[in-house]
Amino acid sequence: MSTVDQKVSVNPLHPEFLRQAYRPKEIILPTPEEVDRFAAETVIEQVIQKPNSYITFATGGTPIGMYQLLAEAHRNGLSFADVVAANLDEYWPIDTSHPASYAQFMRDTLFSHIDIDPRNCHIPHGDARNQYEEAAKYQNVLTQLGKPDLTILGLGPGETCHIAFNGPGTSIDSSVHYVELDEETIEANQRFFGPGESVPTGALTQGVANILNAQKIMMIVKGEGKAWGVNRSLRGPISEEAPASLLRFHPDVTVIMDEEEASMLS
Ligand code: GLP
After folding, report:
1. Do residues 232 and 4 touch, judged by C-beta distance below 8 A?
2. 185 lines ligand 1 (CB under 6 A)
């Protein structure tokens, strides 16, 4: 465990920053495939130990390989029937059957391949009429569910250091909220949309406080262009300017990454 560096550029009056910081466990594996396997084994172990685990799921390209391995574990006999799932985020506005919506993504990549009860799968409604009302409703859902046993995260593209859709400047106290997406995030997510189709300009996201509420956090880092962000988040100043750096205020974080993404770690 390390303490927050004296030179940290955070608001020193903010009570959260007066807490001690921790050093996340770093697992560096040679290939992205080994990252998928390690991450999947962590989830499988969680479900075996506690079949009714409450797990927060992530989207994006990063967890796809892990989800395939979870589907395989189910085919080999692992049951997810009692698992409770809540997702980190969803675009707004978006039709929930749009292939790039996170609701559809979760059905396609994981939920339709395992025996999880759809009534236990929670995700913000991208087709809600009012984004602010939907944010408040999703916060209520999370409050009812309590503390996640495990929260799975990816890391945002480039220099965003975002977790879920919490970009630079998001408060450590933030709960579920609506965000306008920045250019870098829109560009990075364009690949999930068809040619000529625009990425929605906004999203509903769990806030940093929701993420830090988990018992245990597992951040998976693979795919191109995350090396700078990983180093900034794990070694740079703890600051709301790099939301992933705030994970260092949580006592049980594991970051699983491949060698390429770990290559800039100082
Ligand atoms: C999106 C999601 C994040 C995810 C990030 C990384 O912005 N909202 O939760 O971690 O993308 O995406 P990818 O895994 O595709 O690099």
Report:
1. no
2. yes
Give the residue among 92, 99, 91, 39 at the shortest CA–CA distance from 64: 39
Measured distance CA(210)–CA(183) in Å, rounded: 25
Q: Which residue owns the Cα nearest ligand 1 atom 12?
A: 60
DSSP 84-106: EEEESEEEES--TTSTTSHHHHH
Supply the DSSP symbol for 100.
Answer: T
Extract the tokens encoding 147. 């503390």
What does residue 249 show for φ and ψ, rounded to 5 degrees?
-90, 0
Q: Which residue type occupies 231?
A: N
Contact 94, 165 (CB under 8 A): no
Rounded-to-integer distance, Cα 24 and Cα 248, Å? 6
pLDDT at residue number 213: 97
Q: Are 93 and 104 in contact (CB under 8 A)?
A: no
Nearest alpha carbon to residue 221 among 66, 103, 2: 66
| Model pLDDT for residues 111-163, shown as the tens digit of each residue | 999 999 999 999 999 999 999 999 999 999 999 999 999 999 999 988 999 99
Q: At what angle do helices 64-75 and 102-109 cross, to 10 degrees?
A: 40
129: CA distance to ligand 1 center in Å? 24
Residue 163 DSSP one-character state: B
| Residue 37: exposure state from Cβ atoms within 10 A (0-12, 13-18, ≥19) | middle
Terminal alpha carbon distance of the chain? 17
Kindly indicate the confidence band of residue 20, based on its pLDDT and cuts at 50, 70 and 90. Answer: low
Q: Is the C-beta atom of 223 inside 6 A of ligand 1?
A: yes
Strand pairing class (150-153; 177-180): unpaired
154 lines ligand 1 (CB under 6 A): yes
